[in-house]
Amino acid sequence: MCVNPLTRAKEEGGMVTRISRPAPGEYRDYAIAYVSLVPDDGLILDHLEANARRFEALLRAYPASMLKSPHAPGEWTVLDVLLHVTDNERVFAYRCLCIARGESAPLPGFDQDEYAAAAGANSRSLDDLLVEYRAVRAASIALIRGLDDAVLDVRGAADGHPLSVRAIAYLIVGHELYHLRSLLENYGMPAGAA
Prior knowledge:
Blueprint: H1 5-13, H2 32-35, H3 44-61, H4 64-67, H5 78-100, H6 112-119, H7 126-145, E1 155-158, E2 161-164, H8 165-187
Antiparallel strand pairs: 1-2
Helix pairs in contact: 3-7, 3-8, 5-6, 5-7, 5-8
């Protein structure tokens, strides 16, 4: 019999297995665009793992000629989007750590366009960016998996707005889904992609 490792971890160490959907007020109003994309089943860790496989498969299916060419003037390239998702996840995970550990100081905001402009995604290879993406995802999964249920309701402040630990987990998943959908809308489904 196969035992779900998340269930076993919960039984052995009191770690999170399901995270209920955050309520309005646990995140900034605009973030409903991300939260609403996440299935309402509480399986955030499963979604983080499945989304990573789906995201990487899509990126690998695009021809190399598409990776560094924006779909329209002034827009981000596929590689810019990948590094943006990675950078945002890193920021979200840091916020999750701080708030879960009881940080009372407000956490700073950041300008995603300035980060993207400074990141240099198009000077790197897809393989290199995916190594970084996978490392960040593994760290996020480990962080969220190690949270106790009691900290999911803990709230702090980021960029001058309230934010709960639970909401951050949903933002990580939903933000990636948002950009996955955006890539499909702007670049299409590559031939041979699943």
